[in-house]
Amino acid sequence: MKGFFIGRFQPFHLGHFYAMQFALSKVDMLWVGIGSSNKKNEKRNPFNAIERKQMILSSINKTLLRRIKIYLIPDFDDHSKWIDAINYIVPKYDLVFSNDEITTSICSKTSNVSTIRLHDRKILSGTNIRNKMISGDKWEELVPAGTKKVLRNINLKERLSIL
User: pLDDT-based confidence at 72, cuts 50/70/90?
Assistant: First the structure.
């Protein structure tokens, strides 16, 4: 069975990591969609799609990597265009993993959706982690080691200060 999990991963954090582990426990293959792939250098989307892909790939156990394929999914201002783009870009899948209301609503019209329980959502959220990065608070314990490595290599402080 094949599953689909989409997120912005701004940055890829432990909540995403746990969600992917859950999804991988339910399917043989997991298609991961990096949403907002056409967004970068914005306060809400400071990391480009390639950086986010590197965060994911460097954070996942090498034995699991053979069960994951990553696809870049751009934003559209129209939900029907967005789901059409997903279905064009991503190979057929049997199950969608999501906890986002909009994604669940859109995808449930054509696919089975499995809700993912979010871990420590107030702490493990991209917005919270980005705010900690900007303010100089500790954020490193909220992301996998692979994400830390990618973020250290992109001159994080300078990028966030510009945004």
Answer: very high
- Among 3.40.50.300, 3.40.50.720, 3.40.50.20, 3.40.50.620, what is the CATH number of 2-162? 3.40.50.620
Q: Tell me how far CA of residue 8 lies from CA of 1, 55, 62, 101, in angstroms.
A: 24, 12, 22, 15
Q: Quickly list DSSP for the chain.
A: -EEEEEE--TT--HHHHHHHHHHHHH-SEEEEEESSTT--SSSS--S-HHHHHHHHHHHS-HHHHTTEEEEE----SSHHHHHHHHHHHSPP-SEEEE--HHHHHHHTTTSEEEEPPPSSTTTS-HHHHHHHHHHT---GGGS-HHHHHHHHTTTHHHHHHH-
pLDDT in tens, 121-149: 788 999 999 999 989 899 999 999 999 99
> What's the mean pLDDT when you consider all of the chain?
92
pLDDT of 6 strictly over 90 = yes
